């Protein structure tokens, strides 16, 4: 999931799964579809 976050009056888009941050929402969403960090089923 991509979350929007504000830092120094700049909006960033963060991949919740792995913590990577992007300055463009499209980049974040594209990363999200490739991200392996989502749904870590081994963590209870
Ligand atoms: Zn990610």
From TrEMBL:
Occurrences of domain C2H2-type (ranges): 13-40
Q: Which Pfam families match?
A: DUF7128
**PROSITE patterns attached to this UniProt entry:** ZINC_FINGER_C2H2_2
Top-rank taxon, per record: Archaea
Could you tell me what this protein is called?
C2H2-type domain-containing protein
């Amino acid at each position: 999931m991509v979350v929007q976050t504000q830092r120094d009056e700049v909006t960033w888009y963060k991949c919740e799964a792995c913590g990577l941050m992007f300055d463009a929402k499209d980049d974040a969403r594209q990363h999200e579809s490739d991200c392996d960090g989502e749904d870590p089923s081994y963590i209870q």
